[in-house]
Amino acid sequence: LRGREVPSNVDSLLGQTAIVIAAIDPIENTGRVRVNSEEWRARADAHIDEKERVRIERVEGATLRVVAMDS
């Protein structure tokens, strides 16, 4: 594996689709998503309602930064 970066499990989340299971509210700093079978805390720059699909942009510790799929 010399010379090749091996992505971590967290890196493999980037670009994946998740489902909002608790509305994401950037003012209240709340929100949760489900990706595969795992639940994650989620943050976004705009309000996103429950049951919406989002794309994972980056991972910040135990929090996923997401954007709405229509963005």
Please describe what this structure looks like:
- This protein is mainly beta.
- 0% of the residues lie in helices and 49% in strands.
- It has a 5-stranded mixed β-barrel.
- A hairpin with a 4-residue loop joins β1 and β2 (30-35).
- The chain starts with 16 loop residues before the first strand and ends with a strand.
- The model has no long low-confidence stretch (mean pLDDT 90).
User: Overall mean pLDDT score?
Assistant: 90
The H/E string reads EEEEE
What separation lies between the terminal Cα atoms? 36 Å
How much helix, percentage-wise, in residues? under 10%
- Report the principal-axis shape: globular
Uncertain stretches:
none
Strand percentage, roughly?
Answer: over 45%
**Major beta-sheet overview:** 5 strands, mixed, barrel
Overall number of strands? 5
User: Treating each run of at least 4 consecutive H or I residues as one helix, how many helices?
Assistant: 0
The Cα radius of gyration reads 13 Å
Structural class: mainly beta
Strand line-up across the major sheet? 1-2-3-5-4
Features:
single chain, 71 residues, 5-stranded mixed β-barrel, 5 strands, globular
Topology:
Blueprint: E1 17-25, E2 30-35, E3 38-43, E4 53-60, E5 63-68
